[in-house]
Fold each of these.
Amino acid sequence: MVQKAIDFATKVHEGQYRKGTDRPYIVHPMEVGKIVSTMTQDEEIISAAILHDTIEDCEGVDANVLKEMFSARVAGIVSQESEDKSKTWMERKSATIERLKTAPIEVQMIGLADKLSNMRDIDRDYPVCGEELWNRFRMKDKATIGWYYKGVREALREAFAETEAFAEYCSLIDKNFG
């Protein structure tokens, strides 16, 4: 199932790039899957991690497609991890923080891996780009972006305080947002 998720995600993310870079987008869901695989061996959860942005960012992909191709569980996990792009940035991010506080552990796991992957990108690019880095995001304010990542940290602290992924995430937040 994991290889099928990799193949599907590679196809539907084709032509997409990480914000403000020439890095193919698929590197992000692959990294999210790899991070999740350090916390569980459950192939449906790892597959959902690889597919986590497909409903949100890929044309023609919805929960029904994922249910048919993978499973109802995978489709449900990806659906819970997806944001409603019709809302403003602040509405979406506030909703994500609130949702992560009480989401099932597998959704929280993918949320942590997703945000850790994003923080790794920020940590890699900030020393090179400096303050210009924040211009690649919809919310171009470093303090507001930091608010979001810190909010996710607090939402996930209880469930993941003892994991390496969470420790790395906290370290990168402190380093890049203070």
Amino acid sequence: MANIKSQIKRVKTNAARTERNRAAKSELRTWIRKVRTAVDAGDAEAAKAALVTASAKLDKAVTKGVLHANQAANKKSRLAKRVNAL
């Protein structure tokens, strides 16, 4: 553990941010999985609804700094392509 006061604070804030980012990424993976399972099941309505939510979650992750904007755009594009193929 660090001895310097600012570094002790930095360790605590990094741990809190890591936990928050981990939760956000987990939620993203859940919504992406919901889109994929709906597409695999052939359920177009459920896939479209899940895609809307997943896209919003991806955009939110970008604004919070969890994901890079290009990575989110790529994920949204791939998901939309799969949903539109139904």
Amino acid sequence: MSTCSVYPLPYHANPAEYFAAIRHAPGSVLLDSGRPSAERGRYDLLSAWPLATLAVAPDESGTAFLQRLRATLGQLGEAAIPAPLELPFAGGLIGYLSYDFGRHLEALPHQAQDDLQLPDARFGLYAWALISDHLLGTSQLVFHPTISEAERQRLCEVFSQPVAANSASFSLKGPMQPDLSPEDYRQAFERIQHYIQAGDCYQVNFAQRFRAQCQGDAWTAYCALRAACPTPFSGFQSLPDGGAVLSLSPERFVKVSQRQVETRPIKGTRPRGRDAAEDAANAAELLASPKDRAENLMIVDLLRNDLGRTCRIGSVRVPQLFSLESYPNVHHLVSSVTGELAADKDALDLIAGSFPGGSITGAPKIRAMQIIDELEPTRRGLYCGSLLYLDVRGQMDSSIAIRSLLVKDAQVCCWGGGGIVADSQWQAEYQESITKVKVLLETLQNL
């Protein structure tokens, strides 16, 4: 098997310093672990100038699109990372699946309005990446063996030039406004309670959208948001019309490394306290909450079932249940479900069997998705979808695109939601949907 070539660069903890050099290149994309403030992520990965771009067609089945991704990845060809380096990407696919890609995998109603007109999935095929390893404090360009010497030289030069300071601005033309009034929210909440009492479902993840007209450079907005809310599954993906996906997600969807699978669902949230005592009390209350533990357990059970579709029988485990993770704006309850891919399955089979993530749909999943489509007036688009990479070795990591924004057609949208169960209170759920994105909305408002 051919081996990638690697060109070392000076280490930067903040990937924005390197990404600025390719910000305006076609297909520029950054998967960002939120360093130096966020501590959990190990790698940042950025690239541009894809060899091919693939978007799912409106009437294309999910299976057919995933097969197209598989075939495109095969055309690039397998490659190894030179020992002893451990790097997550040797060339391959980087892009997003929107929540509504689920419509290409399952038969769902079409009640929610598609007013954002975002393709349900969009990927580039990238033969190089700039990867920073925060554990070892290294930054390097990784080139797939098919890249020409001239192109390698060009890319080395791109990242060796000093980058001019970003002078572009971003601003809202008015405050971020919710699409739903509190009364609209209460009515939808009561409808969900009716479905739960009738035995249709146990939990429904219900979300509301906030939006405003905007102007300026989405990258400037992203840099301000990552400073205010650093998270380990952040990302920025430029869109062809000058728009962009901006994600400040704390949640992993599924990771595949040497055929080992892990998913880390988040269910259960409390705001950070105003002082250390209140903060500790909020965290302790979350850890002890029967409601939040029950919600988390429902999703763990759902994900065990989802992973079981593509994992070797008997390999699915729950090594971590109800652990606390704290972020700048909230505490979360997080669990971990692991497995090993079955011999005849790959990472794209795993996506087909488990997308969209159970933590942002509800249980049982398909019925919850039908109820979401009935009660949320507009399609979610990118929100609750996934940003992901999949390389030529079969390595994959993916986020759940919560705390995420879409800048498109001179408008910025942001969504907040949460899981509703039988003993939920509507005012508390309404407030939680705002708490989760408050730091993002306030940061944009103050630009």
Amino acid sequence: MQAKRIIPCLDVDDGRVVKGIKFKGIQDAGDPVELARRYNEEGADELTFLDIGASYKSRETLLDVVRKVAAEVFIPLCVGGGIRKVEDMREAMNAGADKVSVCTSALQRPELLSEMAKAYGSQCVVLSIDAKRVDKDAVHPKWTAYSHGGRTDTGLDAIEWAIKAVELGAGEILLNSIDADGTGTGYDLELTKAILDAVPVPVIASGGAGDLDQIAGVLQNPGADAALVASLLHFGKTTIPEIKKYAESKGVCVRW
């Protein structure tokens, strides 16, 4: 049985970790280097850095943060935000990233995924999908993919986009539910299952973690390959060891 991963997510804007609800109401959550150090010591399996302003602002601040963190932690780093071409990916990798995440740039130019995979391998290419449900009352739900940090509805079916992206070279899907983000009401299990059924690559569930049971639930077989956690950790409501211990008690195989 493959071990499931617990991945703290650091949404970084202007050099600080921030968190909001449904991509809005952003508030400060701490220093990224200090948080990264804590999560590394607690036993995080990976760290994800997302420059939430990089789709419309400079990514230089995030790269500086990545350099500082990479010098102190010893777990894989995934960096996203402002990656628009292979040269941007190279800068992130040189700064200490082990893989990069793309969202807006891939929606605007899907062939970027193939270029990145050719340059560094699919295992280094993570497609981030910011998805929002179109009709909550529909018998067969549909989600569309959003760009620019959840600001713009592309109208593109999120499931179809995931399939195409994997064909182009994406080696992993970071699945963000805009509806659930920051609400603490739990992951969008229907969305997660739909993506899991559609693609053969690992899927990271993101958005909505409010308690330990919800985290274990999204990982229980057949579940997501990893769970992204932010607010619960940033604001001291739980720790990574507590998450792993609880998930293990629910039959989830976790890494220690």
